[in-house]
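User: Can you help me understand a structure? I only have the sequence.
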Amino acid sequence: MNLNEKLHSLDEQGKPIKIGLVGAGQMGKGMVSQISRMKGIYTAAIADINGERAVDAYVASGIPSSEIIKASNLIQIDDAIKSGKPVVTEDASLIANAELVDVVIDATGIPEAGAALALQSITNKKHIVMLSVETDITIGPILKKLADSAGIVYTGSAGDEPGAIKELYDFADALGFEIIVAGKGKNNPLDREATPETLSEQAKKNNMNPKMLTCFVDGTKTMVEMTAVANAVGFIPDCRGMHGPKAEVDELPKIFSLKEQGGILNRKGVVDFANGVAPGVFVVVTTDLETIHEELRYLKMGDGPNYVFYRPYHLCSIETPLSAVRAYIYNEPTIVPLGRPKAETVAVAKRDLRAGEYLDGIGGFTVYGIIEEYEVAKTSGFLPIGLVNDKTRVKTDIKKGEIITYNMVEIDNESPVVQLRKLQEKIVG
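Assistant: Let's start by predicting it. Here is the structure, written out as tokens:
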């Protein structure tokens, strides 16, 4: 049976997959509603630091508030799930420890919270689906290794751009195409100086968290997402920060070709992005067989020698349940790091920084991220942006636009992300 048939079978048997969701913000709330319309799966429990937000997520999916149990301990969580009652809590650790939860989904958007939740879920032998790409690019390899040892699945999410790109990559790779570039569209102009303050009105208008909007506009999110793709398929950025040309879909094969072919690339097997094709994702491919070129030309795929496979949408958290299902039924991930990273998103000073002040992390006022080859970043001592939080103290003056190195700052050694990163570098390298 295929995945859809498996879900229908689980529904008919009365044995649905029980999801424990952590984070009931915009992404989590939409996910709960989508799951409510699926067969063979349901949201058994929700955790959010704001308990009422968790209740609202259930109510939005059609469940009356009077039927929702509020829990503050593990016994209450497990009893509610056993009785088939929807249950909410403000303690995320209860989700990872709940006996009857099959798959945990992290929708917190906070690297520290995601790291702690992933570790707890793996310890309790529960599959973990991570919506926090920022966590994955920083400590994904060690989480994957720990999950493998525990016999469970650690995975990124379908619907998020890295997951959608990986699906296109797998399609092209399975067919035997040579993949030149894997990429995504960017849907807003790049502004490295953007801050939550400069974008406050736009964020309010779009009903977005200002920090989230900031990390999109200043380019950090694109760098993070393509770092995840690089680490999952073994590609590297062609240059620091990638090229990011402006392009329409039909221009991608020509632009993303080698320089000797009139394109912008120095080499094949790279990650990149393009302004003008958002919210889509793509891979640019070629082949060494003329018969395939003839067939592709006949199929109106272009004149070659390069061709683009393009998906014009990604459905974010609406697709996330499929990653949970795939992990539970097939014991397979959607997207995970291969092992030793190929790329890193490193921290760059957004403004002049003075010794003694503290950084604020992704989507803030002090730093943005830029992609670099992992080996270059490691050799140069560049600071991964996923290790930056509001306890990161600047030790020396840093100029605007300068890449921040480990020796320029004091990092938060109590952070679970920092601790896991240190372990990762010992084991993975």
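Now, to help you interpret it: The first helix runs from residue 3 to 13. The CA atoms of residues 108 and 303 lie 45 Å apart. Let me know which part you'd like to focus on.
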